[in-house]
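# step 3/5: fold
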Amino acid sequence: MYKYVKQTQATEMHKWCSNILNEVQCEVSDYFTFDFRLIGSGDKRLVTQNGNNPFDLDYNIILQKDKKGLLNNPKQIKDIFISRFNKILEEKDIDAKGASNSTSVITIKLHNNNGIHFTFDVAILVENNDGLFYKITYDKNTGRYIWNALPNSKNFVEKFRHLKEKGYWLDFKERYLELKNMHLTRNDNVKSFSIFLETLNEFYK
């Protein structure tokens, strides 16, 4: 069952991930500018852990300026980011598995003597003119990378801020954990950001 990670643990790893992402910003500056957020509008109190298994942090890279006109080539964009993550990890010479490519995220795994103890997942997003966020995803049907629309992502930052201002934060946090555990029991393999949007949408029905 999922539980919330202690604030001190989440803060320590959030700082480490943020440092890596700040360096990536410099590495890709000839191609893009981007913002990054820990899911839940950057709120560390949404970090969860399945029992005693390693916990992870999920980040969204949100592209802003596309300096080379690469938005129509999502595969090249993802390849650029993977190569820059690997360059930084190699230079730091830390006990980490290099950035690996999955269906919708880039994954970095940190190890200790007992094996993997932390994973760091990064999705690449862009906000479209329709107000929705689109994520780079591998489409198994076509065998290519596409920009996949995230349902219910329109104005999610403003919605979440408004929800907290109205005093619904604790209710949101409780429901978010319930939905994570529901997807866990179903073995749905749904990413945290999608569950965040699902929870947020319930409050705005």
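# step 4/5: annotate
The helical segments are 7-27, 74-92, 156-165, 169-186, 192-203.
# step 5/5: archive (pending)
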